[in-house]
Amino acid sequence: MPAPIHSAPGNPLASPVWAPDRLHRYAKSGPRYTSYPTALSFDAAFTADEFSAALQRSNEAQRPLSLYVHVPFCRKVCFYCACNKIATKNTALAAPYLARLDTEMALTAQHLDTRRPVEQLHWGGGTPTFLTLDQMSELVDKLDAHFGLSDAPERDYAIEIDPREADVLTLRHLQSLGFNRLSLGVQDLDPRVQKAINRPQPRALTETLMDEAHRLGFRSLNLDLIYGLPRQTPDSFAQTLRQVIELNPARLSVFNYAHLPQRFPPQRRILDAELPSHNEKLAMLRITIELLTTAGYVHIGMDHFARPDDSLAIAQRHGTLQRNFQGYSSHAQCDLIGLGVSAISRLNDSYAQNKSTLEHYEAAIDQGQLATQRGIRLCRDDLLRREAIERLMCDMRLDLSALSERWQVDAQDYFQSALNALEQAQHDGLIDIRGSLLEVTPVGRLLIRHLAMAFDARLLSQTDNHYSNIV
């Protein structure tokens, strides 16, 4: 491991809690809480009819809409990837998929009041930029026809980009379609690491796209990095971080690689012997916090960082930050509609996930049915716990007195078992509990998943091997 890092005031690395022997206590698996209940609680008894009813109920509150579109195609498989994807170089294969997306939109819109504004749009994958420019235009036209897209300046229309599959013409076209935020997959800039994960990507590709995006006036740029990949070392990852800081993205997501080859076959191409040790991964995490906070980034929580003037950091300061299936979001109180294979919808009191294989998704749509595979309708306890977990993960604080007033319960009594479970974390300096107010410490932001688990009533019925390690 590298020599100890001398930390700036307020940096979690300055805390004695960072001692590896203490952090090992929290080196276990846990949910990322992009939803509560998590997807492991979704049930096949929740059918397309249940989802239709949930869509209709959502009209009553008239919340704005958020649309997620899953584009599953990739030209090449990255060995680390755990996404739902289809490897092909034939862009013609996207045409029948886009036609079925159009049908799914029509089926969904039948149950929605489409006068509700679409404040958020996100294309994920796979690789959305696998689509040709004409196919992208077609997809936007269909979304607009069925739901009515927005041109409001405050909209958040984002797309995930593989810099190897895009150029300056792509960015200009995306801007003309209404996108104002980009997320670029980088993972690591070290050629040795890139070779080990089957993702050669020279820095110049990313830098050229970022320069053009800044020139075009895209509101926010996010870069995705991963630590714990094969052939990474603390020193090599520090070098990647320094280069990324020079590129000056508005946001950074620095994920912990979860090696689960039994679940994700491409990961079987990664050699166990080339993976960094737990202590080396811990050192990479320390270096990430040190370099990014020194460079002026705000640690939003877990693996997300943003410049203070970015909408993500502003939303956190205003208490309007939200968790959804894409991570942290600056647009709270939207009903999320997921479109495409494996996509998940979040309505006020329900979650619904589409069928996870292309064959089954296509079959359902071709029969004129919504492609719902499973889901869940939340009970009052789920709703209360979801709010507690979401506010803790987004605000890094939880006011139990506010929960008591909103839900007409004694929240301190209701969550007494959770408060008892947090005693060790409080002793270790992860959280400060004073009466009805819980405040997460700087180092607790790294371990916020562990803190949230104390409020999860369903966790004991689930197995650890479905989750990634917290640290």
Shape summary:
globular
CATH topology of the largest domain: pyruvate-formate lyase- activating enzyme
Strand content: 15-25%
Which percent bin holds the helix content?
25-40%
Distance between the termini: 16 Å
Provide the CATH architecture of the largest domain.
Alpha-Beta Horseshoe
Q: Any idea what the radius of gyration is?
A: 22 Å
The CATH H-level homologous superfamily of the largest domain: tm_1862 like domain
Secondary-structure content class: alpha/beta
Description:
- This protein is α/β, with parallel strands linked by helices and 471 residues long.
- It is built from 17 helices and 19 strands.
- The protein has two domains: 39-339, Alpha-Beta Horseshoe (pyruvate-formate lyase- activating enzyme); 380-459, Arc Repressor Mutant, subunit A.
- A nine-stranded mixed β-sheet has the order 9-10-8-7-6-5-4-1-13, sandwiched between helices. It has a three-stranded antiparallel β-sheet with strand order 14-15-16, covered by helices on one side. Strands 17-19-18 form a three-stranded antiparallel β-sheet.
- Helix 5 (168-176) runs parallel beside helix 7 and helix 8 runs parallel beside helix 9 (278-294).
